[in-house]
């Protein structure tokens, strides 16, 4: 590791270490999002794919495969696959959430229309499907099929669970796996599978991705209620205004008095929000230790991710993945 | 064949002949559309799946497999797969077209919301993906991945091509393959593949499904401009009012005078439709022989489908598939 690398964020170190592979992933992505007859497809996709997303999921796949000694060509296909799946879910999410901005730019549904977002999302799913079939690995296909079902089920579950005060931490975990962790864990697991890694390493890669994704999402929930330990750019209260039952709220609702429960019912279930409600909600989160509880959960998932890595070969990439698990929770720890 | 069967429509004869298999398909469909945690999924899906669709696509898969001597279990999985893909595309289509009715009932996007239609569609795609992985056949996965890409590309193409007077018959065919024929041809082809049929039979099954699907769609276009040779229930002029460039219109535009072209530009491209325009459009279709031309195309595709069947084993199901190709064009011939 160069001196430069030691002061870089773990994600940037992964990017630097895997720059050659990642360039091949980008070439493949551009090649496969082309469509001879439907120019709308590369227009919409490029808007999102070229918008400077962090490419975290493909990096996880590449890192897992390389760490397990893979030197074939198909980790590139799988990295492109997970990025296509991710992009397709973003397109559909923006339609579902009626979002106006993504990565600081207007969303595709705003620039074009909902139709284009739905259909181009479907196109990317089908392209990702073709890419994974090219690897010729039925086990990879099985993992990605199951991840796709978990993602889709989690998204539907979120539709009904997000504003239902009966949502408990078990359901929360299912939603979070659907939203984030299932694609993280599939990304790392298929990297190990394509490399022919031993079973205990494949399991460890799954566990790492799953725990990292959950930690990532809990931190996102915390930041939305101002849980950062340093200044960040994020607006406080977006989830509250969108009436989302995130982990801190679920913890506070579990300990709520009758009066507090009536408050949550009004602001989350009924969506009747008034001046001062956000501040009152944050008071309730503090009163019941909900922020500290969620923070402890995030740190526990991060530690679980790092522990899993001990089953994997000693490798510079393993250190970076471990540092990444620290980095994900750094803003709240 | 019983005496009863000779007076039944070919589709009903297929259903009767394959009733045992089809019952297993229905059991599998109900089992796989269940979701323990997201009850919205079976609600939305049942609304569509149980609504008495004709189940034509799964029947094609079962017929192809049985005709080629298959006696394993996986034709049932593949039949459920194509029905799930079909249902998922209907859910997304209704969002894209802002439809209010499907199979005589309110659409899911109207009963629930667009979000549910998008996400439950995604869920069904992922479930279909799991079902096909269970067959363990990479070739089947390859065929269905390619069909999915053709379907999605055709749908996007239709967004831009449907109201563009430059759309020619080549582009029309691509859109029709995406809308209809790609899933028909994949349905028949995978039936042959899972049965281990010889290559020439697999090719013949693809050709049959492709040609049948194209004939089916051209007939649909004709009926919309009153091309039926007997009375049918369908409203005339829906495609016209929705400004769709269907085959008869494409043929009439290709032969249009400058004045006629201005008319088509106004009513299709600009959507400025007035009293009497539908009647004038139908006059132009008649003037340029566009209805006769499209009718001849439908009959040619139907004949092509029947010809392909000659490569397949002599079998009662082969006769039914041949009769089905006749039946599809019977209303316009």
From TrEMBL, chains A, B:
Q: Required co-factor?
A: Mg(2+)
Q: Which organism is it from?
A: Albidovulum marisflavi
Q: Which SUPFAM superfamilies match?
A: Terpenoid synthases (SSF48576)
For this protein, the record's InterPro entries field holds:
Isoprenoid_synthase_dom_sf, Polyprenyl_synt, Polyprenyl_synt_CS
Matches recorded under Pfam families: polyprenyl_synt
Transferase as UniProt keyword: yes
UniProt family annotation: Belongs to the FPP/GGPP synthase family.
What's the name of the protein?
A: Polyprenyl synthetase family protein
Lineage top rank: taxon: Bacteria
The entry's keywords = Magnesium, Metal-binding, Transferase
Which PANTHER family did the record assign?
A: ALL TRANS-POLYPRENYL-DIPHOSPHATE SYNTHASE PDSS1 (PTHR12001:SF69), GERANYLGERANYL PYROPHOSPHATE SYNTHASE (PTHR12001)
């Amino acid at each position: 590791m160069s001196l430069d690398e030691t002061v870089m964020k773990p994600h940037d170190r992964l990017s630097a270490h895997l720059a050659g592979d990642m360039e091949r992933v980008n070439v493949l992505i551009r090649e496969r999002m082309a469509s001879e007859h439907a120019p709308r497809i590369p227009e919409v996709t490029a808007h999102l794919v070229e918008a400077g997303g962090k490419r975290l999921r493909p990096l996880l796949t590449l890192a897992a495969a390389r760490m397990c000694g893979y030197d074939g060509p198909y980790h590139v296909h799988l990295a492109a696959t997970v990025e296509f799946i991710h992009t397709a879910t973003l397109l559909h999410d923006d339609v579902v959430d009626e979002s106006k901005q993504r990565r600081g730019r207007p969303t595709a549904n705003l620039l074009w229309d909902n139709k284009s977002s739905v259909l181009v999302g479907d196109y990317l799913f089908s392209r990702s499907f073709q890419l994974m079939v090219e690897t010729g690995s039925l086990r990879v296909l099985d993992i990605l099929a199951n991840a796709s079902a978990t993602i889709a089920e989690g998204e539907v579950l979120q539709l009904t669970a997000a504003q239902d005060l009966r949502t408990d931490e078990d359901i929360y975990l299912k939603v979070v796996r659907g939203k984030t962790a299932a694609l993280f864990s599939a990304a790392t697991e298929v990297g190990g599978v394509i490399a022919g890694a031993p079973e205990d390493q494949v399991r460890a890669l799954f566990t790492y991705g799953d725990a990292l994704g959950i930690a990532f999402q809990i931190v996102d929930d915390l930041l939305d209620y101002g849980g950062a330990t340093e200044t960040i750019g994020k607006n406080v209260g977006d989830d509250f205004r969108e009436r989302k039952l995130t982990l801190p709220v679920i913890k506070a609702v579990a300990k709520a008095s009758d009066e507090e429960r009536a408050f949550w019912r009004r602001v989350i279930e009924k969506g009747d929000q008034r001046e001062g409600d956000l501040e009152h909600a944050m008071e309730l989160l503090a009163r019941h230790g909900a922020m500290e509880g969620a923070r402890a959960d995030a740190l526990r998932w991060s530690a679980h991710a790092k522990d899993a890595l001990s089953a994997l070969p000693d490798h510079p990439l393993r250190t970076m993945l471990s540092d990444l698990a620290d980095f994900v929770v750094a803003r709240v720890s």
